[in-house]
Design goal:
Largest sheet of chain A: 8 strands, parallel
CATH superfamily of the largest domain in chain A: Glycosidases
Number of domains of chain A: 2
Radius of gyration of chain B: 32 Å
Radius of gyration of chain A: 24 Å
Strand content of chain A: 25-35%
Distance between the termini of chain A: 45 Å
CATH class of the largest domain in chain A: Alpha Beta
Helix content of chain B: under 10%
Largest sheet of chain B: 8 strands, antiparallel
Largest interface: A-B, 58 and 50 residues
Number of helices of chain B: 3
Number of domains of chain B: 2
Order of helices and strands of chain A: HEEEHEHEEEHEHEHEHEHEHEEEEEEE
Shape of chain A: globular
Structural class of chain A: alpha/beta
Structural class of chain B: mainly beta
Helix content of chain A: 25-40%
Strand content of chain B: 35-45%
CATH architecture of the largest domain in chain B: Sandwich
Strand order of the largest sheet of chain A: 9-8-5-4-1-12-11-10
Oligomer: heterodimer
CATH architecture of the largest domain in chain A: Alpha-Beta Barrel
Chain lengths: 456, 540
Amino acid sequence: MKRIISFTLALLIALGATMLVGCGDSGDLGESTVYKYNFRGYDGDTMPIGGFIGPAPEYQAEGYTISTTITDSVYKKIADCGVNFIIDQRNDYFETPDVVKQMLTLSKNHGVNYFVKDTSAVNFDNNQEYVAEKEAFKTSLQKLYEYENFLGLYVRDEPTVELFSTVKKAIDNIKEVKQELGYDDLSYYVNMNNQYGNLSSDKTNKVQWQSYIDGFGNMGVDYYMFDIYPVAGLENTVGAYWFNALGQMNDSAKSKGVPWLGYAQAGGSYGFLGNRVVNEYELCWNVNTMLAFGAKGIAYYFLCMPPEYSLSVPEDRINEIGLINKYGATTPIYYYAQKINKNIQAMDNILMNASHEGVIINGESPCLYTGETLTSFGKLKSVSGDSALVGCFNYKGQTALLVVNNSLTDHRGEITLSFNGKHTHQVIQRAVSAEITESEFTLHLEAGESALILVK
Amino acid sequence: MKFRTSRNSIIKWVISLVLVFAIILPFFSVTGVDAGRSGGNLIDDSMLTGKSFGDWEFSKTGITVSNGSVHFDESYSTGNPFLSLHKANSSAEIEVAIHAEFTAKITDMTDGQRFGFVYGIKGITGDVGDNGTTFIYLTPNGDGYAYGISTFKDGAEQVILSATPFTAKTDGNKIGVKVYSDGRISLALDGTIVYFLTEKDKTIAEGYVAFSSMGKKNWQGGKIDVTIFDITVRNEYYAKPETPLIAVADFDSDDFNANEWYLKSFRAGGDGIMTRGGVLEFDNAGQNSTFSPRYKYSNFEFYYDIFDVNNQVTVGSDGIKQLPSYWYRIEWGAEGTNVEGASSTYETAKHFIRFDADVNMPYKKDGTGLLDTENTDFGKRIGKTKMAFQVPGYSTSITVPEKYAFFNADFDTDTVVRVRLRLIDGVFSVAMKLKNEVSFVEILRYEYPMLIQPTGYITLRGEGNQNVKNENNPHGYMYYHRGTDFKLDNLQIINFDSAPKLVSVNFVSNRLTPFEDYDYRDPYTDDYLITNTGGKSSGN
């Protein structure tokens, strides 16, 4: 009897210890909440990768004719770059319906989607504040919805706080019409300004950015989007505000329960940010740090060189503005973006289904971060080695890490990840997926480059 | 007397005749020696009335301007010229560059003071006595007055005509001055020429003109009390802007020479101005869309074909009515530092013709004042093709003959009308013909006053919807589309200046050569991927 009791007791103790070990050291992150877009045609696993300003119809600049770039070959280039949607601020369905129809038709053949402007429904051009009654929205959306790659109406970019009520009216009309017509997958484009932009039309009104973000959210938006461009000054220097801005955006979006997108700095030259043109490492870092801070989508500013820039940009600088120049030819920035996007496409089914839980910053950083940071996460015990920013994600209970070489000049950054045991890891780097089973390993990353680690 | 001519004599006679004509003929151009003057009045009564004297530079101390007269009173002091802001030019083709006439009534002038007309001032801050100026003056002379002429060079005064007494009239003396383009001067007093400078290049005609004075300052006791009136100062010169001899745009390759022509396009429901199908297509082009020669012209002929004009109401693919073509106009003598500037604003052109025909624009009968765009007759052409003509001081409107009336509702769209504008020797005309006709029919002829014509840019400008916010459509457009909607072809402009100044222009297509895709070389390598490193650091 004594032996039975002793054995049972030992068994119970052993079982209890096992359970304790399993719960305390397994790294099981449990369930998480992931905020998704409702973008037409997106399956929830594909990250939206967009571009601001699309191809243009033929136009004149200083008496010279620039041929149309609304062509099959240009949309193929855009698609080959990995861009899957365009925010078209320039062409108006009301003014030039045939142009817009051609845009939608040709882009569809290459899987590129569009936010389209129709000033018969909503018009903020030339200081106007026009939002039509619901019937006009209905007419507009019914016509445009016929195009499968129509994502929604372009409503407003960077509204001031004074415009929030008008923008909200447009959003409300769109939502009502959507419901009425059964267009559940239709969205709209709105984008917020950054803390250094014109948050109010009244220069004496000092609006705090958080207050602006909250006001933006109160318009009932389905996602957040914002633009701020950190690459400025000398080469390989960036704005000190960048990580704080990303952190604030991510926290705000999470508290609102919406995903967020950020603009990547693909334009430059000619008065834009003091003529600053990104190099490949800077753009890479720009995008990857946004992803590490929880962005669920990006858009390049610019995608195509805007027509009005033709009047002021000399020919030898047209490759510095956007991914596609005014002739529809690729620029160097196109190829930087293509590599970045290819990596995103290899990672996005994980990132789009993972909740962002925090960041780890190791070593020096090109910019400050005054928010909370982690030192470990899930099965990750520590990060050591060269400068690194690690985005920590809960992917269906599993530890997922987006490791970024947080340097713009260290071209072979070595970042060592140490785990709480020997695990099998899926490593996705430069769109190449590999597996490694170790308790510790070192990543080699180019300046600004990232790799995704999923701890299985 | 018998005359015997030998064969040799006949040959010599013929050769002499040929030589005579070879010498004489170059002096007679097809267009005449007095071709196409430019210029105008530097000073006249219209600039001396009202309250604003924007044509002048002067300090009001001692100078009062009213009703065409200028009074230099006792508080007036030397060093305060009454200067016209219109600069005089001169050219060898026009003999007399400046005609100045005025009546001077002298009330008082202290000894040593001189008052009069000065020309050749370099800048608007200049005055008599500056290098290059010439002064035709009146001055006290004993108990009476005298007139004289001096010119100033390198800081020294050169007397051209020493003080010559005359009788000052109580109601003023009429002074007439002619300044020749070669620097000679003639001076007339009360209708009689009293002096003529025959030596050339003694004075310089070009520059600003003024009424001014020399002598002691007012506070030094120098007094001038003079009133001038019935003032006219006119400048004439032969402008010869440099241009290609003939510039042609036939659009056969869907392009044109961007070194000779300038295009700017806006949209009003269509594609704007496009070179396509071998023509210049105004496809509902918007307001201020223009097609212009890049050079300024003085004497010229300008041609174009116009056809396929939209005179009907259609409904676009967006369901919005597209109205018949808006008017277009052709301007000449437009000012600006370049063609881009000249064509960018509506107001720089004061000389133009405009083609138009009315359309029906009924209003709703509900008293709202809104256009009845749903009316079945809304936008239909109801008027005949008219051509308005406007130049400073004159305007008129004519009905274009039916045969050429391309804006008429029933005009055949395949019919090509060729239009010619001509401005030569101060005479402007518009003529038309059908493409298959031989001769042009003149529909307008206008002679500029004194044959003084403008020099400047020529612009063909379209009109289109304006982004006007109104009750009809609060979001900024009229609830229909309307722009300039027709095709042009075979544009041609010819320089008709006498002995023109020509430039040779290379062909550069308006369609810029596109860039090739960037040749990117990937700096990244694969050696550092984890598949190759095995997750080891480089120190291992």
